[in-house]
């Protein structure tokens, strides 16, 4: 059987990259006895070794899977349907490798139809079309961003060249040297994260202030009604 390369994304255990765990992780906690004594323990995912058959790839693949994945395969009515239509965040490593291989085969062989398979849903072709459209949009955005960066780089180089020319002329004329053009610093991931945290904190504070203002208004209206009743 062909060895499939695992996609490494994030800080994941290697065993998760070699199997289908559907996001299941090791859980840690305490086992409490009748005397309220805590014993530290962990709960491992219920993983078993299974040999699954892919109709699109025409291969039998042996891997570790959790029982939740087996129930999901039955729900999707086929291993290929589960791999193709499941959210990529639940397919780490070998799952994403299989997904890309299946989509590449459906894309490279347009003669394939749902009638050619037993348990492959027509929704797989719809998913492929939607996937290609999203990829085209992302590639267009990446190309647009690349062109903008290229224009900015050309503009910066022209500014530096003009500054050098002005500086040479100022030296020859004995005048004051012009200031060097300042490049705008790019925001780092840390700066963006801090800005988002501050914006979220400001939104929370605004909601609290609004709630406090509404409660005060209700209290004032209640006191006003009580005062009117007392006067009448």
TrEMBL record:
The coiled-coil regions, if any, are: 128-160
Record's keyword terms, sorted: Coiled coil, Ribonucleoprotein, Ribosomal protein
Name the source's superkingdom.
Eukaryota
- Which segments show compositional bias classed as Basic and acidic residues? 172-182, 189-211, 219-232
Q: Name one Pfam family in it.
A: Ribosomal_L28
SUPFAM superfamilies from the xrefs? Answer: L28p-like
List, alphabetically, the GO terms of the cellular component aspect.
mitochondrial large ribosomal subunit
Q: Which GO terms describe its molecular function?
A: structural constituent of ribosome
PANTHER family found in the cross-reference section: 39S RIBOSOMAL PROTEIN L28, MITOCHONDRIAL (PTHR13528), LARGE RIBOSOMAL SUBUNIT PROTEIN BL28M (PTHR13528:SF2)
Q: Please state what the protein is called.
A: Large ribosomal subunit protein bL28m
**Species:** Lotharella oceanica
Q: What is the lineage of its organism?
A: Eukaryota, Sar, Rhizaria, Cercozoa, Chlorarachniophyceae
């Amino acid at each position: 059987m062909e060895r499939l390369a695992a996609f490494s994304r994030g800080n994941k255990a290697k065993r998760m990259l070699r199997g289908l765990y559907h996001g299941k992780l090791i859980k840690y906690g305490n086992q409490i006895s009748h005397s309220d004594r805590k014993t530290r323990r962990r709960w491992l995912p219920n993983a078993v070794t299974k040999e699954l058959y892919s109709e699109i790839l025409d291969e039998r693949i042996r891997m570790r899977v959790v029982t939740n994945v087996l129930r999901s395969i039955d729900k999707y009515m086929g291993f290929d349907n589960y791999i193709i239509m499941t959210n990529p965040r639940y397919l780490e490593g070998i799952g994403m490798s299989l997904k890309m291989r299946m989509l590449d085969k459906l894309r490279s062989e347009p003669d394939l139809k749902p009638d050619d398979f037993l348990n492959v849903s027509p929704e797989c072709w719809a998913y492929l079309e939607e996937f290609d459209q999203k990829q085209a949009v992302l590639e267009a955005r990446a190309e647009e961003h690349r062109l903008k960066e290229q224009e900015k780089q050309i503009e910066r180089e022209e500014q530096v060249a003009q500054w050098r020319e002005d500086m040479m002329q100022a030296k020859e004329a004995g005048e004051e040297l012009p200031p060097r053009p300042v490049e705008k610093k790019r925001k780092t991931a840390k700066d963006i994260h801090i800005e988002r945290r501050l914006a979220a904190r400001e939104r929370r504070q605004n909601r609290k202030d609004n709630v406090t203002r509404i409660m005060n208004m209700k209290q004032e209206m209640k006191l006003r009604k009580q005062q009117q009743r007392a006067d009448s």
